[in-house]
Amino acid sequence: MSTTSVDRSESPATSSNATSSLLPLQQISLGMLRLGFGWALFWSGIDKVFGLGFATTPEKSVLAGVSPTKGFLLGLEPDAPAAALLKPLAGHPVADALFLLGTVGAGLALLLGIGTRIAAIGGGVLMLQIWFASLPLAYNPFLDQHLFYAAAALSVLAFDSGRYLGLGNAWRSLPLVRANRWLI
């Protein structure tokens, strides 16, 4: 009587066999979803840093000495559920650094398809925090774009979409990443 061993060191979503189980259109869609979410994060961050004139004018940029969190957090409605918790963080250097890391850092990682696990978790958590801070919403009882971005982050994480339209396959073959799978 023989026994069959199963390698459970990687989940199905991260194994090399998972790639072949998706159709090419599904792979492209997941890659595009990751790229779109990554661009949204990255653009938000670099616009805050450089004041490119879209959401942030040059005189309100980080390079001009303005906090990337102060305007949003101080602008929360006084009766918002998160106001008492978040307003004291407005302009705090740690809050500013975490915001920029979550936008520029996670956005760049998602655009490249490297470190997508950490980037998707960080970006998704940031989107959920912004959604919570925005309550009550002006146009819908609970749903806004931040929840869609959080869902995109979950899909990026669940399907390891760095493998599609990115550098994820080359990244995961690096000795450092092979030894530390959480870096995928």
Describe the overall structure:
By secondary structure, the protein is an all-alpha fold. The chain has one domain (20-183). The chain contains 9 helices and no strands.
Beta-strand content estimate: under 5%
Helix coverage percent: 55-70%
Distance between the termini: 38 Å
Order of helices and strands: HHHHHHHHH
Give the low-pLDDT segments.
Answer: 1-18
| Count of extended strands | 0
- The radius of gyration is 19 Å
Shape: globular
Instruction: Please give the domain count.
Output: 1
For the biggest sheet, the summary is: none
In DSSP terms (H or I, runs of 4 or more residues), the helix count works out at: 9
Structural class call reads mainly alpha
Mean residue pLDDT? 89
Key terms for this structure?
single chain; 9 helices; mainly alpha; 184 residues; globular; 57% helix; 0% strand; disordered N terminus
Helix and strand layout, with pairings?
Blueprint: H1 16-21, H2 24-50, H3 70-74, H4 83-86, H5 93-112, H6 116-134, H7 145-158, H8 168-172, H9 175-179
Helix pairs in contact: 2-5, 2-7, 5-6, 6-7
Please outline what is shown here.
By secondary structure, this protein is mainly alpha-helical. The protein has 9 helices and no strands. The longest helix is centred in the N-terminal third of the chain and has 27 residues, at 24-50.
